Amino acid sequence: MRSLTKQILTGFIILTLGVFIGVTIKLVRAWVEPDQLPPGGNIAAPLNTGSAGQSKKGGLTLNVGGAQYGLIVADGLVGIGTTTPNEKLTVEGNLSLKEGDSSPAATNGYTKIYSKNVDASYTKLLLHADGSNGSTVFGDSSLSAHGVTAYGNAKISTTQSKFGGSSAYFDGSGDYLGAGDSNDWDIGSADFTLDFWVRPSNVGSDKTLFAKRSNSTSVNYFVVYISSGSYKFAATSNGSSWDIASGASMGSANANLGPFGSS
Question: Which residue did the predictor score with more confidence, 19 or 192?
């Protein structure tokens, strides 16, 4: 009886091992090795610390553990939206910045860029000069939405641009943009800013860049213009003399004109 029991147990053990071995062999045979070198095969190359460049098709999330430094790029150029960056950071496309709780602390030798919420109602005229080449439609993107009319040969051109791929073009002979009378143009005694970019073809003759006047022939209430190779500003309170400012220089006209104001 013991001998029979022993034989049965031995047979059971052998049968059990056979089942496990058979299952194991079946599982091993179900895996198929890659038939190409990574990343072309069915197993992607792992990111590693090697010196060769690597790419990843999927997204990448960093620093879920909250380390002090989330990403350090020790050298080279970084591109967002481009594979050919030309600066330490090159961004092709729009940026969205959320207002911070406070201004950043000053760091010696660095300029800080931060977002600060500004009341849009302070912007009285905003011309992006966006559009197709040759268009004469100039929309005001400010909340005031002033109607703007192109006179002469004023038009949108894609030949030159500072932002957005197009700009307003004036050939220098009777071309200008005009907007109707509005209280928005009454500067008063408060601080103000006129902010635009201009690329003059030459600076040898006087050119009006921005002006407020009651009609096309009257004296300007204020005017930004080019004269004698410089950007200048003049303003009047009485309509007959430049009693507020007369030919105040704002720098050489050989450089692009950026923002300026009364403060």
Answer: 192
Is the preceding omega at residue 104 within 30 degrees of 0, hence cis? Answer: no
234/256 same-domain check: yes
Residue 133 included in any domain: yes
Taken as a whole, the chain contains a residue count of 263
Query: CA gyration radius for the chain?
Result: 35
Residue 243 and residue 236 in contact, taking contact as beta carbons nearer than 8 Å? yes
Sign of CA dihedral 51, 57, 62, 64: negative
Give the C-alpha separation, 129 to 138, whole Å: 6
- pLDDT bin (cut points 50, 70, 90) of residue 37 is low
Average pLDDT in the chain: 78
Of the candidates 223, 262, 228, the residue with the CA atom closest to the CA atom of residue 246: 223
Residue 80 lies in a domain: no
- Give yes or no for a contact between 200 and 226, defined as CB atoms under 8 angstroms apart: yes
pTM above 0.85, yes or no: no
pLDDT in tens, 115-143: 777 778 888 999 999 999 999 999 999 99
